[in-house]
């Protein structure tokens, strides 16, 4: 199977799963979670394809939408990393030189 047929098969399967979930036929929480994280990457991938076909405006819009969706999905992880960074920064200030 060549790469175009494989990609088209994967896209049809993902689209069918999203459509089934939309109409109320749920395939489980794990599938929903995976699809939820795949959607932003699909937007970004379509943006990259549009960029290659010199559709710069469409590409920017798709990548920005995908990035915002991904940012929303990863907000908990980003918050955790910011909290750890603040703790490390605060501890380094305690151990730093007191003459500043």
Automatic annotation (TrEMBL):
<keyword id="KW-1133">Transmembrane helix</keyword>
<feature type="transmembrane region" description="Helical">
    <location>
        <begin position="6"/>
        <end position="27"/>
    </location>
</feature>
<dbReference type="Pfam" id="PF22570">
    <property type="entry name" value="LiaF-TM"/>
</dbReference>
<dbReference type="InterPro" id="IPR054331">
    <property type="entry name" value="LiaF_TM"/>
</dbReference>
<keyword id="KW-0472">Membrane</keyword>
<keyword id="KW-0812">Transmembrane</keyword>
<feature type="transmembrane region" description="Helical">
    <location>
        <begin position="34"/>
        <end position="53"/>
    </location>
</feature>
<protein>
    <recommendedName>
        <fullName>LiaF transmembrane domain-containing protein</fullName>
    </recommendedName>
</protein>
<feature type="domain" description="LiaF transmembrane">
    <location>
        <begin position="9"/>
        <end position="98"/>
    </location>
</feature>
<feature type="transmembrane region" description="Helical">
    <location>
        <begin position="59"/>
        <end position="91"/>
    </location>
</feature>
């Amino acid at each position: 199977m060549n790469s175009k047929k494989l990609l088209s098969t994967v896209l049809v399967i993902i689209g069918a799963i999203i459509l089934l979930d939309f109409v109320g036929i749920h395939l489980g929480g794990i599938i929903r979670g995976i699809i939820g994280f795949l959607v932003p990457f699909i937007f970004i991938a379509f943006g990259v394809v549009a960029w290659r076909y010199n559709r710069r405006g469409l590409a920017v819009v798709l990548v920005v939408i995908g990035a915002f969706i991904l940012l929303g999905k990863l907000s908990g992880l980003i918050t955790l990393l910011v909290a750890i960074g603040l703790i490390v920064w605060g501890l380094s200030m305690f151990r730093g030189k007191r003459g500043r």
